[in-house]
Specification:
With 209 residues, this protein is α+β, with helices and mostly antiparallel strands. The chain folds into two domains: 86 residues, 3-Layer(aba) Sandwich (Glutaredoxin); 102 residues, Up-down Bundle (Glutathione S-transferase Yfyf (Class Pi), Chain A, domain 2). It is built from eight helices and four strands; from the N terminus they run βαβαββαααααα. A four-stranded mixed sheet has the order 2-1-3-4, with helices on one face. Strand 1, helix 1 and strand 2 form a beta-alpha-beta unit. The protein is globular.
């Protein structure tokens, strides 16, 4: 069983969240950059993730997909990095990590697709309304530097990335609480390293004309 940590990604994907988490962990890893509709849908990668989507990691004979799961797995696999609270103190950690993976992700995706949920059907979607979801998240951050503990955890990596992307692309309302939180997390050295690595992997712009 190999201890090698392999990261499958594309710099224009949610793999940026996993990259940030990997840099926070601080362990060596190998990156496999996949192309949409090409190697991402090839037989070799489909054997790893039948969805043909990134990110994914392989480690110690295991395959982990889905960003929130990757964040949680890495925090547990490398406890010396201190990216998860002690087991007895993980209520907030699990709550807000998976709140971001569920209601936040769903609400942001539906807004990006410009789908209007009729008021009489709001109970059918996991987040209710965008305002309700954002109010809950803002309340969780009120008066706190971090979402789940008195220090940075994997939950901050995932929640912070969702808020950062959402505000950048207009799918999450800019609120002072969110902006201050994202600004604080963006100063972390691991975040800056991750952005630099992924930006360097971005395809060169096509020549004008």
């Amino acid at each position: 069983m190999s201890d090698e940590l392999v990261f499958y990604t594309n710099p224009m994907s949610r793999g940026r969240i996993a990259r940030w988490m990997l840099e926070e962990v601080g362990q060596p890893y190998r990156t496999e950059v996949l192309e949409y509709a090409a190697s991402m849908k090839g037989a070799a990668y489909l054997a790893i993730n039948p969805m043909g989507k990134v990110p994914a990691i392989t480690h110690r004979g295991q395959t982990i997909t889905e960003c929130a799961a990757i964040c949680a797995y890495l925090a547990d696999a490398f406890p010396e990095a201190g990216l998860a609270p002690p087991p007895q103190d993980r209520a907030r950690y699990y709550r807000w990590l998976f709140f971001a993976a569920g209601p936040v992700e769903q609400a942001v995706t539906i807004k990006a697709l410009q789908v209007e949920v009729p008021a009489e059907r709001e109970r059918m979607v996991g987040y209710g309304t965008m305002t309700c979801m954002l109010d809950a998240l803002e309340g969780a951050l009120d008066g706190r530097d971090y979402i789940a503990a008195d220090r940075f955890t994997a939950a901050d990596c995932y929640v912070g990335a969702q808020l950062n992307w959402g505000m950048m692309f207009g799918t999450v309302e800019k609120r002072p609480t969110f902006e201050a939180y994202v600004a604080r997390l963006s100063e972390r050295p691991a975040y800056k390293r991750a952005v630099e690595i992924d930006d360097a992997l971005m395809p060169a712009p096509a020549p004008a004309g």
